[in-house]
Amino acid sequence: MLTEPNRTTVQISNHLSKLTVNPKRGGAIDELVLNGRTIIQPMEGLGYESSLLFPFPNRLAEGKFSFQGQSFELPQNDDGRPNALHGLVHDKAFEVTASSEYSVTLVYNYDGSLPYFPFPYSLQVTYTLEATSLEMNVTAKNTGNQMMPWGFGWHPYFLVEKVDECALQLPKVNKIHADDMLLPNGKITAENTYNTATQIKETEFDTCFKLSDKQGLNHTHLYYPDGSLLDIWQEDLFPFIQVYTPADRKTIAIEPMTCGVNAFNSGDELKFLDSGNDWSMRFGLTYSGVE
């Protein structure tokens, strides 16, 4: 069922599952219920809730980058750190362009008018809801007349109530170590702690991991205290996973990313789009409750 109350939010439902999307908040998810369990809900004090992160995810050092002989400087918005954070679309109004009983498509068109990112683009996202799963299909298109650099990520906070009692299992990854500005410091080590489901306990995450063995579809498993499982999957086009635990320990962010932190400067898996070209990608969630 699709409902669109005053166009402020768009809601679709499928049996015991429900998705509420907010076009005016960057096309982000306001609420997600899968098979009766609340996976995502509005939380006070958190930023970038379920935001689409484009044209770059995560941090950009000092907001500065150079491309094809030109230098650019984006506003610094990283809570006191001298970085640009999480791209340019999280607070933009998207347009609903298609909807059906179990899916909705939204688009944002950018005209390239900002001097610090003069690259026009369109970003389209389709949410498809099933009884126990959500799939997201995203297409980025270069609508300008010159090549553009880009990266994409998604920033969900999963409601767990007690992070310490949850368990986490990562795919085969390396840990990207960071400095005080939460930027990569050049140190990379194999991450073995979460090769199997391991209780998080008091561990604090604001950590980027990079896939070391791509599997086509790559799975991060989050186990709730009752044993239920949330499978966060991502294509090989997303070789990074950012894990973040907010201070209240009631949620955990597990963020698929197409490029590394500060990729506009490091080039770590940074992508490029020629004029008129597009790139499509998909990722999603599957929930398995305890019988």
Structure, explained:
The chain has one helix at residues 263-266, and strands at residues 2-3, 10-14, 17-22, 28-34, 37-40, 51-53, 59-61, 64-67, 70-73, 83-85, 95-99, 103-110, 121-129, 133-142, 148-150, 153-155, 157-159, 167-169, 173-178, 184-191, 198-199, 206-211, 217-223, 229-235, 240-244, 251-257, 271-273, 278-288. The longest helix has 4 residues, at 263-266. It has a domain at 2-159 and 246-288: Beta-galactosidase, Chain A, domain 5, CATH 2.70.98. The chain is globular. It has 291 residues and is an all-beta fold. The strands form seven sheets. The chain has a nine-stranded antiparallel sheet, with no helix packed on it. A six-stranded antiparallel sheet has the order 17-26-25-22-19-20, with no helix packed on it.
Mind sketching the topology for me?
Elements: E1 2-3, E2 10-14, E3 17-22, E4 28-34, E5 37-40, E6 51-53, E7 59-61, E8 64-67, E9 70-73, E10 83-85, E11 95-99, E12 103-110, E13 121-129, E14 133-142, E15 148-150, E16 153-155, E17 157-159, E18 167-169, E19 173-178, E20 184-191, E21 198-199, E22 206-211, E23 217-223, E24 229-235, E25 240-244, E26 251-257, H1 263-266, E27 271-273, E28 278-288
Antiparallel strand pairs: 1-2, 2-3, 3-4, 4-5, 6-16, 7-10, 8-9, 11-12, 12-13, 13-14, 14-28, 15-27, 17-26, 18-21, 18-23, 19-20, 19-22, 22-25, 23-24, 24-28, 25-26
